[in-house]
Each structure stands twice: as structure tokens, then as C-alpha cells.
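target protein:
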Amino acid sequence: MVFSCQIRSATENFLPASAKFMAEAEEKYELTSHLLTDAHESSSSDLSHASLKRTGTVWTAIAHIITGVIGSGVLSLAWSVAQLGWIAGPSFMLLFTAITIISSNLLCDCYRFPDPQVGHVRNRSYAAAVRSYLGKKSMWVAAIFLQETYYGYGIAYTITAAISMRAIMKSNCYHKEGHDAPCEYGDSLFMLLFGAVQLVFSQIPDFQNMELLSIIAAVMSFAYTFIGLGLGFAKVIGDGEIKGDFTGVATATVAQKVWLSSQALGDIAFAFTYNVILLDIQDTLKAHPPENKTMKKASTISILITSFFFICCGSFGYAAFGNQAPGNLLTGFGFYEPYWLVDLANACIVLHLVGGYQIYSQPLFAVVERQIMNKHPNSAFVNNEYRIKLPLLPSFKLNLLRLCFRTAYVASTTGISILFPYFNQVLGLLGALNFWPLAIYFPVEMYLAQNKVRAWTGTWIVFQVFRVVCLLCTILAFIGSVEGLVSSKLARS
């Protein structure tokens, strides 16, 4: 695509020769333009961010992205392909791959304002970018979807982690007692255990302190994805056949087929969407080379890698189990043996989700805490930090606001997870709710505003068609996921 910003073309040759000057200038601009960046930030927070040394590279960005993208969604893809069939299932995953690359590349250019490379205002969050390019009213609409997304991921990851912990117990039980043994365990205790772990990790101050956790989580995500892929491949080879149908699972009524297929679309959308944390990750990158170039490279590489694994896991899972593919590939007990490998995969899932929970929670923490600090700049409870040293542990800083708010947040996500422990339905609903507004509508609107694209031009028409098609898919996925969630809740009660 050809971007029409005149500022960029006038400064591209100048930038490499004056990198030091621009680095100093951008810090001065940040100090004087804080009112244009984020509605929730004051001059004091801008001062702290201006002095922040950003050290991120393409590799740390890839680690953050993979941690955010490869999550609980990958485990539902075999079930999703089963609902859609051999033609529609992989085709929709390829479609979502292309959509994700396009929308993320559009969003990468929104980190700086008004120019993607040399703009003096940094948009450190999704909401800040929307305000810079589309205005305050649009920012508040985007903020509602953003906070719901962050919170929803916390619920989804709590459910998934509990299911995986329970699967480890069931796997060991089946190995000892036989595959027909009544190995039943509840979810609530495991959700409480995961919540207790998150109480500790939620005290990590911000994204800048999460590099090690993201790298570990990314390694874990690759590990369990490889295991799931390998188990599916081994079962296909062992059975000597590729199961499944071109049209997917047969249902008693057409309506039921529509509900399941649309829910599968929501699950696929959930697996691919990560735009809500893209600018938070981009804000960790070094300024040179330009952040948008580094982030586009990291984003494209990460999406291609994860999409390859998504398609393989979904396809091999469906080939292995056919129309009986479980809702969760590694916890639905299509695989019983080797039990230790199933245990290892589920342990990797839990470790990955510990980091994944924080990847999606830290942006919400930052927004809420900045708002409270701005309203109470002189409060010791809000602003003071205390250095704590426990035996055998390194010292750490404790902030009472952070301790109380984040503890309440973790408790609430855990409580809702206990009330609605429905894996596929929750993932489908979250994917449907967030995909169109955050991955399609706002990135396209910001691109059109940034490049001053006029209505009814060729580019404008292409993007409008793109948005309408994605909107129809989102509406269908939302209706099907709500129907599935309500039906599951009524059936359980």
C-alpha cells in the first residue's frame, strides 16, 4: 500500500543522519503534548514515560505477540474444523490469517501521530491511538470494547488453565484405573489455584518488566502446540486413515448446524485476534529503526508462525478424531497415552496461561491505575511504593493501590469463571464481541483518517467491502456463541 503522508517523504532521508537529534526531540515533544496522547494520563505520568528507556527488539516483540496469540484458542481449533468441515474450516483459518496481518499492519502505523515514523506523539495504547486519529468520542467507544476484551481474556484463561490442571489429574487417574474409570474432578478448586498464582504475578508493575515471563510463556506455547500436533499426527498414522467430512458434523436440524458453525467462527476469531495489545507491545520497542517497521516485521512473522501451527493443529486434530473431535484437543481425552506426554502438554498450557493472563491484564491495570493516580495525586495510598524484602526472595516494590485493585480484579475474573466454565462457548463469544470493532473497524478508520482517503475512491470502497464482510461474520458468530452459552447454562442447571 502507498501511504500519502507528506511528512514521511520529506524526512525519510533526514532521519538516519539525525537519529540522536530526533531521539532527543521526541522526548521534548512528549513532555509538551501529553494532552493529545491519552485521556487517562497526566503530565506526571508523561514525565515518567518520557524518561522511560525502551529496549525492546523484534525478538522481544515476537515473544510478546506469540504469548498473546497462541493461547487457549488453539485448543479449540480441531473442534472448529469439525463443525465447518474440511473445506470451510482451513479456508476460514487462512482468511483470518490474512485479515489479522492486514489489520495489525494498519495499526502499527498508528503508534506515532501524526506521522507513522517521525510523529512527535506516542500512542502508548489502543485507546490513545483512537483518540489521536478519530477523536475523544471514538476513544470512549473503543475503550469500552478494550476493557471488556482484557477482562474477558482473564476469564477465558482462568477457565482454560483449570481445565488443563483437571486434565492432568484425570490423565493420571485413567492411567492407573483404566480408561473407563469414573475419574471426575470439579473445576472450581483449580480455578482458585490459578487465581492464587495470578494474585502474585499481577503485582508485576507493567509491560516493561514482563520480558522474561513472556519469553517463558512463548516457549511453553510452542511446546504444547508441538505436542498436540504430534499426537494428532501420530494418531492419524496409527489409525491409517484421515477422518472427517467435507461438510463437517451432521446435525439433526439446519438451525443447529448454523449455531455450531457460527460458534466455530467465533472460536477461530478468538484464536487469531491480538490487536488490543499491539500498541502496548510496540511501546516497548527502541525508537531506531522506526517502531512501526520493527513492529510490522515482528507482527507478520509471529502471525505466519502461529497461523501455520493453528492450521496444522486444527487439521490434524480433525483428521485424527473426525466428527468426534473434542472441544479442547488436549483435555477432551481423545489422547490417553502416553499419559506423561499429555500431562506435560497440559502443564505447559498452565504455565503459558500464567503469562498470557498478564499480557492481557497489564493494559487494563495501567489505564485504571493511571486514572486513579491522576484524580488523587497527593494520596499516599495511591502513589507511595514500599520496598519489601522477604526471606530467600529478592526485594520488590509494593504499592497499596496496585495490591488492592489487582487483587479484586483477579478475584472477580476467578468468580465469573466458576459461574460460567464453558470453554468453547466463552471463547466463541469473546471472539465475536471483539473481532470486528477492534480488529477491523477502528484500524481501518484510523488508516483512512491518517492517509486522508476520500469517500468513494477505489481504496475507500475496498475497505468498506472489507468491513461489511467481516461484520457479517462477526454477527453470525456472536448469535451462535450466545445460543451455545445459554443452552449450556440451562442444560447444566
